[in-house]
Design a protein that fits this description.
Helix content: 25-40%
Shape: globular
Radius of gyration: 23 Å
Oligomer: single chain
Distance between the termini: 38 Å
Mean pLDDT: 94
Low-confidence stretches: 1-5
Structural class: alpha/beta
Length: about 550
Amino acid sequence: MSADEADSDDEGVDRTPSPRADVCVVGAGPAGALVAAELSAAGHEVVVLDAGPRFDPDDRIDRMERHLRPGTDAPVWDTDPERDAYSSTGDREYPLNAARVKGIGGTTLHWQGMVMRMHEQDFELRSSVGLGDDWPIDYDDLRPYYAAAEDELSVSGASDDPFAPPREEPHPLPAFPPSYSDSLFAEACEAVGLATHSVPNARNSEPTGEASACVGYGTCKPVCPSGAKYDATRHIDIAEANGARVLDRVPVQRLDHDGDHVTAAVYATPDGEEHRQEAREFVVAAGGVETPRLLLLSESEAYPNGLANSSGLVGRYFMDHLFAGMGGTLEEPTRQKHVGFNTTESHQFYDRPDDSRTAIKLEFLNYAGPAPADIALTADSFGDELLAEIREGYGTHVAMGALVEQLPRRENRIRLDRSRTDDHGNPVPDVVWGVDGTTRRTIERANEIQRAVLVQLGVDIGWTVGPENTGPAYHHMGTTRMGTDPAESVVNPQLRTHDLANLTLAGSSVFVTGGAMNPTLTIAALSLKAADHVAERL
């Protein structure tokens, strides 16, 4: 959606504040959407404010074609260079806009959809092996919320992971069957002693009342045209059906406050107006970058270092998962890209026996290598020569990936870059990020395991992503960490800030450690927990 198209769609849209609101939620991604759905279902007056646009679901086929066709650099989910400006001044460049989506639904509009519970050890890492820090809650505290989150996201899974934490109930939907290339990996994994299992996915393996079954477009990232993959617009729709108001393109500029309470979220509208949304309770669910940024932008005489920042830790302990990978070709068909998302993994090397490494989540990729169209559209040949080139380049690629845990480090942070401003004149976020020695050793270990499997399989290894060329998984975590000590954390175990009695932070920014599991299920579980605590206070 271009700016002109967005403006034309705005005719008659009411973005004035609600005269009465019990709860104001900032952010319409999975955390904010779940909080809004839960609290509006309980009969509370809810207003949701989001900086980005409301995308038309009927445009998804066009967005898929935009992704597949060459000749355009336009992003699948529209960005704004001024609105989304940022800096990166750490040891490693952090490409922030490569993966985030601002808009109703947030980054779930283009995520891959893998949803796993964090392990028991993740919550007690310092006590267990002397790394990182302990959470102020344990796995059992989050266990009922994990089950509820799996229901809300319609998770498909087989509950067959021998390394997973305990659970009482099966996944809501059956697991997807293993891809063809998973079957090729199976014998090699058995030979090297690596156990494999299915992958829980937030996409429908069979039809539900919310969506059809996955039909295998294979473009899950960056767009699911069928709607079978969960995205947060599902819960935004539920919230609106319950009576909640959801305003798009209204970036919150600051949170006004009086003593130990937030009084209003001050937001801008596309026509240049500025409004104050008052409420009894405020929930900021803007992600691991924009949540700390908003708190820092809300500085005042009472909070000269930023709102809720008496600890000085707002923005500190930024974490992400690192990618480790390896791949090549086989002398037999692998049916690459017939599925497009992971159906088999191994969590055998996830829990740590000591402090020598961090967690590893191993992935078997069925979408390595080019698609036939990729080869054809970039080739200089035609006719039989082009057909031969496609046959030569497609169908024999195979690869393994891994997510690697990054420990919380105080020097990794989100801060304000006061030398640059966004489209409203606010300092942009500066991502200060680097990779420590422990994480590097874990990436090396992941590569060792991957090489053993691929050599056993007979793969002609053509590429490796290791410590020197690793990159982030774009899982922003840890910048407003949870704890019981106000001097060492930003929010308490109920997700309410220590400094302000009516301000809750929901999402990955409250993570104390990140593990190596994709974070969205934990984000959803924590958001449901946060909603319960807010409801108790209303």
